[in-house]
Structure formats: C-alpha cells, structure tokens
C-alpha cells in the first residue's frame, strides 16, 4: 500500500531517524521510508532493510513509550510475528504501511494500602470499578462493611463507580489508600474487673447478596448497583444467543448449554458485552446476570483480523488470506470450536465421553449466533455468528512471567495440542496461567483461530524455547498420543457439521503422523515441534520439505492415501537422520 494521500503525517522521532541515518554507501542502498499507522495517524519512519523487526519495535517503544511486547505489526496483510527476522524477510519495502495493533492487557496490578500500612495487591480486570475492589478487601478481611471503606488516590476520595482503567491511566505506580471507619457495633462484656470488647460486623457475603436483590427488585436500576460495569436497563428484546447446530443428532453437553443460558441471562439483564483491549480481532467478555462476573468470550467471525467489521483498524484482506500464512479470514471461529472438540479427554475420545475437560484443557467452546448492539456493526445491527468460549479465571498469561515455574506436564499438554493442530499462533500470550485446586500452576490454552491451517508455513510454538520442551514425554502422555487418530478426528468434525477442506485435513493427518512417529522414536516435544517450525521466515521447515518432496514424488492423479504413504516413508527417512 502506498502512503500517498495520507491525512496526518508526522515523523516518528527525529532522534531515532538520526540514529538510523545510513553510515555507508552500502547501507544507503537498503535505506527505506515506511509509515507506521497507529490510532488514526500515519507516522513516517526510516529503517534499513537489514533492521530486525525487534529493532523497529524498539524504535516505536523509544519514541511512543509502547513496550515492544505490547506491539503487533502487520504489513501487507501479514503479521510480522518473528521479532528476530529482518525487515527484508517480510518483503517490507519503500512506502509500505505497517499497521500497529496494541496488545494491552485486560488485567492490571494494583496495590491498596490501608491506613495501618497493610498492602493488598490485586490482579484485576481494568473494567472493574472501585466498588469491586472494596468488596474483594471485605472478603479478604472478612470484616469491613463496604460502605465504611473510604478510598483515596493522591489524597482525593474516589467514588465506587470509577474504573480501574481510568485511575491507572496517569498513575501507573499509584497506590490506592484505604481508610475504614469502624461504624460496627461494639459490645462490652464484664470479665472480672475488665471489659472484653467484641466487634460485630456483618459478613461481606450478606452485603453483596442484599445489593443484588435490591438491584433486581427495581429492574436493576437501583443506586446500589455501583458494582456493575454499565448501567442496567430493562431486558432488551433485541438480544439473542443460540447455538448453531448443524446436525440434529448432536446433544449439547450441560457445560455448553449452561454457558449459553447464563450468558443469555446476562444479556437479557442489560449487561453489555465488554470488548477486550487485547488481541487483533473483536473479542467480547460476556457478563453474568448480576453484571459482576465474566462468563464467556464471544469472537464474531466478521470482526476477525482483516475481516469487514474488524474493530482494530486492520485493513480488509485483499485475497482473503488471514494474518498468518495458510489461514483464511473469517474461518477462525469454526477452528476455535474444532480445537475444543479435538482436545479429547484422557479417558477417551470426545464423542464417547461426557467429560468436558480435554487433555490440554481447551475451554469449552461452541459456535453460536448472537445479536447485540454492543458489537462492532458497520451497517446497522445484525445477528453475528462466531465462537463462544467459557471464560477462565486467570492470573495473566505466560507472557507475563518466565517459564521456569510451569510444570513439565502442563507445557507438554500444550505441545501435544499445538503439534496435532499445527497451530500458527502459539505465542505465550495465548496461554493463560491459573492455579489448580492443589495450588499447582495450570496452563490454559486459548485463541485457536489459526489452528488446522491450509499449510505448515506459519507454525509457531513459543514453548519450543522453554526448558520443559526438552524433557521426554511421560508414559501417560505417550499413551494419549498413541491413541490419537486423524481419520476419526476428521469424522468427528464432519459429524459436528464442519467438513474440513482437503488441505486442512491433510495438515491434521501429517501432523498427527509426525507426532506419533516422533514419540515412537523417543523424541522430545522440542525435537518434534522444531521440525514443524521455520527457523527464519524464508527457510522452509522440515515438515514443509517432507510435504514438498512427497508432492514431487507422486503422480498428479494419485489418491490422498498414496500421497500420505509417500509422506510417511519420507518422514521415516528424515527421522532416522535426526536421531
Ligand atoms: N477463554 C478465555 N478466558 C479468559 N480470557 C480469555 C479467554 N479467551 C480470550 N481471553 C482474553 O481475551 C483476550 C483476547 O482474546 P484472543 O487472544 O483470543 O483474541 P484475538 O483477537 O484472537 O488475539 P490474537 O491477536 O492474539 O490472535 C486474550 O488476550 C485474553 O486476555
């Protein structure tokens, strides 16, 4: 895309431009002028074709204060995902526009200090309000009435309705101060010559319950509803949420039907979907009836990156290809659902067991139709279809912490899923971190819209570089892997109404084959995963070479089975070389 005709053009940073001014005639040949499109403006920037993507991001960080990890750059419809690759590797050339998508966390760390100096730290969603924080403190202390808590920021009282996002905008390191007025009853009982004092405070749970009751009694418009994200209004008849069921033989498991019903109740009660500030597509947090809890995440297909109603300002795809090579715009939602279905439980295949939790723990996901004015509608409000996934409580993503603390089995379960699904988007931000009942760290894989691609070109697995990936699979995991069957997987997807394109089925068959053969040879997740990922943008991966060699070897009219036989024997040969 050319930069001609742009409205506002301002140099990104004179300092940076001086820094990158060509030092030699050799450099001057590579020197190009590109434009960074961000928040409605277009900023020119001089770079060298030999600059790494990371250094371009660093320039943006230095000049605009946006951390490199929060930046996603898109050029010519492709995400410049590999930070160590060069500008020229992505064919970025003079006059090109780089679209900057910010990846801002929905979570925020805040510290609340009481007047006696006790600190409470919270990892809260930015859309929460001060009232929510007060209730959390009340719960932790099991003592204070929320009305008795006074909260100050920079010495000024702050109301319950103020959002954490607003408070933290100009006060990233701010501490919120909490004062508690003891309006609780004090009872004195004589004990010998002394009095024993006991402080009686109502239980915080009671307070919350009565608040909610009052809210519903008055149609949800009571003043006491300060805990809500948005003002309630009477049930809106212009809302709809229902599963898209293509095969009448399908019976939805209770987890899924419950998720749909409770999400619908939230919409009916006037709770608006809240758009996530993370991600390149439209992802909406759906609230429960009381408006205090996230239940699910809805991702409409027409808001996917480069789709017609994308809310992040990404341009429309020119040829229908998605942000990753080998993917198509608007096909993400169906893949989100397919990956949930194919994440078979340990106890048996998904179709035969009622167990909701799969081996890798992909959150329950279903394809739905949903109508709500709160989504991004360009030409009038209309029904959207997309994936609805259970919201999983978490303490952030793997991007927020080093991998050292992740249990080996947790990393391996994600590796098995990604290898089978040939995931083209497994960055650390797409693995949520949570705690299990036993206090153990649990990893939750999300965002599977770029799984089961048409080709292996953009497979990326961030876990490849984590130490756990070099540890051997456990016996239990090996048993699980050996029970996988790509043909049955494809049959299951068809049963649910999705007949995968031949190329995607082929990818699933080949990646399952590689995983099983690799495990038979005693390979680690790293060794297998490494065969599926390109070392650099331009250098084909081992799996791509295998596929190419097989394509060159078989006759054009050969059956798919003959082609796969050929892949199998070439793969055996390549695996022998690796060992
Ligand atoms: N099931 C879930 N439970 C909890 N939070 C979730 C869930 N799914 C998504 N999120 C949150 O919503 C954010 C956006 O979702 P997601 O990453 O799936 O969107 P996306 O637009 O596809 O992102 P990307 O640009 O990484 O492809 C995530 O970063 C995460 O914080």
From TrEMBL:
Entry's EC annotation: 2.7.1.67
Keyword rRNA processing: no
Keywords: ATP-binding, Kinase, Nucleotide-binding, Transferase
UniProt cross-references to Gene3D superfamilies, sorted A to Z: Phosphatidylinositol 3-kinase Catalytic Subunit, Chain A, domain 1
Record has Chaperone as a keyword: no
UniProt enzyme class: transferase
Domain Ubiquitin-like residues, every copy: 30-103, 110-184
Gene Ontology molecular function, alphabetical: 1-phosphatidylinositol 4-kinase activity; ATP binding
Domain of life: Eukaryota
Domain PI3K/PI4K catalytic stretches: 270-562
InterPro entries assigned: Kinase-like_dom_sf (IPR011009), P4KG1-8 (IPR044571), PI3/4_kinase_cat_dom (IPR000403), Ubiquitin-like_dom (IPR000626), Ubiquitin-like_domsf (IPR029071), Ubiquitin_dom (IPR019956)
Positions of region (Disordered): 213-236
Family from the record: Belongs to the PI3/PI4-kinase family. Type II PI4K subfamily.
PANTHER family with a match to the protein in the record: PHOSPHATIDYLINOSITOL 4-KINASE GAMMA, PHOSPHATIDYLINOSITOL 4-KINASE GAMMA 4
Protein name: 1-phosphatidylinositol 4-kinase
């Amino acid at each position: 895309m050319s930069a001609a005709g742009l409205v506002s053009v301002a140099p990104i940073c004179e300092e940076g431009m001086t820094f990158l001014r060509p030092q030699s005639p050799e450099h001057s040949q590579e020197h190009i002028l590109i434009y960074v499109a961000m928040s409605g403006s277009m900023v020119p920037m001089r770079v060298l074709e030999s600059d790494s993507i990371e250094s371009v991001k660093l320039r943006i960080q230095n000049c605009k204060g946006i951390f490199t990890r929060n930046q996603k750059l898109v050029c010519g419809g492709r995400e410049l995902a590999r930070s160590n690759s060069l500008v020229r590797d992505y064919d970025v050339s003079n006059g090109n526009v780089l679209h900057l998508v910010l990846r801002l966390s929905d979570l925020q760390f805040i510290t609340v200090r009481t007047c006696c100096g006790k600190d409470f730290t919270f990892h809260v969603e930015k859309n929460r309000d001060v009232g929510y924080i007060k209730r959390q403190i009340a719960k932790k202390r099991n003592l204070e009435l929320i009305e008795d808590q006074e909260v100050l920021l920079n010495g000024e009282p702050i109301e319950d309705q103020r959002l954490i996002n607003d408070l933290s905008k100009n006060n990233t390191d701010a501490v919120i101060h909490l004062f508690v007025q003891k309006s609780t009853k004090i009872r004195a009982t004589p004990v010998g010559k002394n009095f024993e004092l006991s402080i009686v405070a109502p239980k915080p749970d009671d307070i919350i319950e009565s608040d909610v009751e009052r809210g519903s009694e008055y149609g949800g418009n009571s003043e006491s509803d300060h805990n809500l994200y948005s003002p309630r209004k009477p049930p809106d008849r212009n809302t709809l949420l229902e599963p898209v069921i293509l095969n009448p033989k399908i019976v939805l498991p209770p987890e899924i039907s419950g998720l749909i019903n409770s999400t619908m109740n939230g919409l009916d009660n006037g709770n608006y979907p809240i758009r996530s500030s993370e991600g390149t597509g439209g992802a909406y947090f759906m609230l429960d009836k009381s408006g205090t809890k996230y239940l699910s995440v809805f991702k409409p297909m027409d808001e996917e990156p480069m789709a017609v109603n994308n809310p992040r300002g990404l341009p429309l795809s020119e040829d229908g290809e998605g942000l990753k090579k080998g993917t198509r715009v608007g096909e993400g939602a169906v893949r989100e659902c397919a990956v949930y279905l194919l994440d078979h439980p340990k106890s048996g295949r998904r179709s035969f067991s009622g167990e909701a939790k799969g081996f890798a723990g992909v959150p329950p996901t279903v394809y739905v139709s949903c109508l709500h004015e709160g989504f991004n509608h360009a030409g009038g409000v209309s029904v959207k279809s997309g994936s609805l996934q259970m919201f999983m409580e978490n303490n952030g993503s793997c991007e927020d912490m080093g991998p050292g603390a992740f249990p080996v089995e947790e990393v391996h379960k994600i590796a098995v899923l990604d290898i089978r699904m040939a995931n083209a988007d497994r960055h650390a931000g797409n693995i949520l971190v949570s705690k299990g009942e036993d206090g153990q760290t649990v990893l939750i894989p999300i965002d599977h819209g770029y799984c089961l691609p048409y080709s292996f070109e953009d497979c990326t697995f961030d876990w490849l570089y984590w130490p756990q990936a070099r540890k051997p699979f456990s016996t239990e995991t090996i048993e699980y892997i050996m029970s996988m069957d790509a043909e049955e997987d494809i049959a299951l997807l068809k049963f649910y109404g999705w007949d995968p394109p031949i190329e995607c089925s082929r990818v699933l068959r080949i990646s399952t084959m590689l995983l099983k053969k690799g495990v038979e040879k005693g390979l680690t997740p790293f060794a297998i995963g490494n065969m599926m990922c390109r070392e650099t943008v331009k250098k084909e991966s081992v799996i791509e070479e295998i596929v190419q060699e097989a394509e060159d070897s078989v006759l054009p009219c050969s059956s798919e089975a003959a082609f796969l036989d050929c892949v199998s024997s070439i793969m055996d040969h390549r695996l022998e070389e690796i060992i």
